[in-house]
């Protein structure tokens, strides 16, 4: 199982200037629960957006830069290389950003998508469109906005048909 995990607005917005457009603590908690003790596959900009490597995960960082090195990262140069390294993990996670989601979509079996109920016109990074002919929604859990969450959102689990 290869899972893409993301939070995206109503128009598939992911972020702007290498940062998220919202702060959803419960979504961060869910992300941590799902991805801990797994390989997480990401692009260089996503990795560099973290203050430090995330605990209890192996960070596979895809970059075109042949000389890139960072503590806490296994640096690789293709999605194929990432999936080969993670092949013994029963569920590696693709965690972004936009370009990595695009190249990983054909390899994914599952999408854990937090659909943020809002539109964000200044976004510069987007989750790829995927066809409901190829994917089936198997779970939907709504979360209302509250004092800790400026936006309501829905956890959606999609599996490839």
Automatic annotation (TrEMBL):
UniProt-listed Enzyme Commission number(s): 1.5.1.3
SUPFAM superfamilies associated with the record: Dihydrofolate reductase-like
Biological pathway: Cofactor biosynthesis; tetrahydrofolate biosynthesis; 5,6,7,8-tetrahydrofolate from 7,8-dihydrofolate: step 1/1
Location of the DHFR domain: 1-160
GO-annotated molecular function: dihydrofolate reductase activity
Family recorded in the similarity comment: Belongs to the dihydrofolate reductase family.
Designated name of the protein: Dihydrofolate reductase
